[in-house]
Amino acid sequence: MARFNYRMQSVLNIKQQTENQTKMEFALAQAELNKQLDILDEYVNRKARYIEEGEQLRNEESLKLQDILDNQYATAQMDVMIRQQSMVVQQYETRLERVRVKLTRNIQERKMQETLRDRAFAEFLEEQKQEEAKENDQRTSFTYGQRQKEDT
After folding, report:
1. Is 133 inside a domain boundary?
2. Which domain holds residue 91?
3. Is-above-0.85 flag for pTM?
4. To the nearest whole percent, how much of the chain has pLDDT over 70?
5. Are the beta carbons of 89 and 41 closer than 8 angstroms?
6. pLDDT at residue 151 is higher than 80
7. Residue 93: what pLDDT?
């Protein structure tokens, strides 16, 4: 029996390699985004602690003006840091989305190549089946012809 050889196997291999590279790139981008989100969460938590500390400072019996002012400054600084970090997170989200779109496109291209390979394989099997049927017909005709000669 003949062996199936997909003539565009090298293209399919390249598509698979490209997809794998893009998957790794996507995982890296996701990890970087998660890292930036963790930083943002830390800033938000730190601001919440500053706000809580400020309330405690204001509720004490003896008000410490310098501590209250320092707390207000720290809270304002956290607002600035949170705003900046939010912009950084948006940039990483945009990058992740671009990589996701690229990955989706690579997956579609690979699947298209696999579909073409599957069709070529189905055609190959059909050709093999026809060849086998042709051989069986020839054998049957030969055997029938031999019997006819023997009978005469």
Report:
1. no
2. 11-107
3. no
4. 99
5. no
6. no
7. 98
Instruction: Read off the pLDDT of residues 85-137 as tens digits, 9 standing for 90 and up.
Output: 999 999 999 999 999 999 999 999 999 999 999 999 999 999 999 999 998 88
Cα distances (Å, whole numbers) of residue 9 to 14, 23, 65, 135 = 9, 21, 75, 30
| In a domain? residue 135 | no
Q: Which helix (H) or strand (E) holds 138?
A: helix 65-151
The count of domains in the chain is 1
**Vertex 94: Cα angle to 111 and 101 (nearest 5):** 10
Position 152 in a domain: no
What is the Cα–Cα distance from 117 to 111, expressed in whole angstroms?
10
Two structure tokens written together for 41: 């969460």
Residue 17 placed within a domain: yes
Torsion sign (Cα): 13, 22, 119, 129:
positive
As a whole number of angstroms, the distance between CA 50 and CA 84 comes to 18
